[in-house]
Amino acid sequence: MTKSGREIMEIFEAFDLTGTAWSAAQLTGYDAKTVARYVAIREAGGDPLAKTSRPRLIDVFMPKIEELVDRYPRGRSGPTSRTGRSPRWATGARSGRPGGRSRR
Is the pTM here over 0.70, yes or no? Predict the structure, then answer.
């Protein structure tokens, strides 16, 4: 969970007062790892309020997805676009069995 600016300032004040992440965590009520993370960001000169983006699972496939979107701008890439007619399973056509039932 992202901390507000006030909460981060409380963490920094507690760390500056105590000098250790564990003691600052005891004073503020946050985990020592959280305190250490915000202090490391401050010491590196970063902005503790800045959002960090994590890689998404789809990022690996984005070049291929963009290629397919460019190739098929209307979203048609299946049998309909190649033959000009919908396949039998997509039209809701019944099977050849009496009553239109499947074999189940």
Answer: no
